[in-house]
Task: structure prediction
Amino acid sequence: MRLILIGSSTGGPGHLDRILKGLQQNFEGTIVIAQHMSPHFIDSFARQIGTISPLEVHVVRDGMTLHPSKLYVCSGECRIVENRAHLVFSRQESKVSLYTPDINALFSSAAKLSPVLKRFGVILTGIGEDGAKGASELFRSGGKCMFESEESAIVYGMPRRALELTPEADTGTIEEIASAIQRFGGV
Result:
């Protein structure tokens, strides 16, 4: 399984739209999106991106198993854990983070997965620093990371902070990120 984690905030829905429209029908990667958003809007957000993505879209529920060629939308605090031969979500309401969903929690959990699993963490536009610490952990555990460049980010806070903590990671415009995701999860 090739796991792609995407964290975004302010300006994220439009950028996610651009990424998802570019995916090919034969895309085999598993995408997990943590878009800062009120839990009340997650279901409608998932339905909306389901109209543009070739992948089947699911809102994360506790205990849900991850599958290739599927897209998952987080709400609350989503973590990915290994359960026997499967990856499953552990989901709960976030009690610690100011941000929901909690990008750091998602990326940190992926850092703890088997290093044999191919993992790719992406931090897009957004205010603050959510995701920076988790992306650093993911990168240090052998995952690949890419952060949106100031050139295309609507708000450069989150990707800037991620790059400060992990300067060895790749950066790129939203178009370059979309291409990298397609290459990583394509056939």
